[in-house]
Specification:
Length: 200
């Protein structure tokens, strides 16, 4: 347990001897997780204490993120393109978002792929907790099934980001220059994305 101000913040320690360094992550469901290479627990706690301010801020930000589940349960609305819509859905929330994303995102991907002169080999959708999208070594694109909740410009940015990985399998300078070529304001969209969570 970590004490910070008037708060008691619980955290879990996961030991993995394959790690070289200690990592602290904030999970929307499981809270603070410390990935430990095998340091003594007293040493781990001292490092966590040093990061108390950072941890508290991250937890606060995570709680402020827009939750599509809470919007639906509390307001009976669904979040589409960054706007709350009064819709009655007959399937589960997860199935609703997956269906909506699968119906509309591939057309957007095709538009950007033509503009960027790249060709993804496959497009899939799946439930994720943290990632909006990914691009495999085979140029297969995978998006979170809740992607359709985001404002249109943010959806476009995620698509451009993943399509850029077809030519640049990294996040080095050349990759970001390629993203900026098609989306100069991408940093603004990254800031907006911090207010949302891919988790349903």
């Amino acid at each position: 347990m970590l004490s910070y101000g008037n708060e008691n913040i619980p955290y879990s320690v996961v030991t993995n001897k394959k790690l070289k360094n200690l990592y602290i992550t904030i999970d929307p469901i499981f809270g603070v997780i410390v990935k430990n290479p095998n340091f003594p627990l007293s040493y781990v706690h001292s490092l966590v204490e040093k990061k108390a301010n950072w941890i508290a801020k991250k937890l606060h930000h995570t709680k402020k993120r827009i939750s599509i589940k809470s919007i639906y349960e509390n307001e009976k609305k669904v979040l589409l393109y960054g706007k709350k819509e009064s819709l009655h859905i007959k399937q589960s929330l997860a199935d609703f978002y997956k269906q909506k994303s699968a119906e509309t995102i591939p057309t957007m991907v095709e538009k950007w792929a033509l503009k960027m002169h790249v060709s993804p080999t496959k497009i899939t959708f799946r439930k994720t907790k943290r990632r909006w999208g990914s691009c495999s070594c085979k140029n297969e694109l995978s998006f979170t099934s809740s992607l359709i909740q985001l404002p249109q410009k943010c959806i476009d940015y995620i698509i451009v980001h993943e399509l850029s990985h077809i030519k640049h399998k990294h996040h080095q300078k050349s990759f970001w220059l390629h993203v900026a070529k098609f989306m100069p304001e991408f940093k603004e969209y990254e800031k907006i994305l911090k207010n949302y969570s891919p988790q349903i």
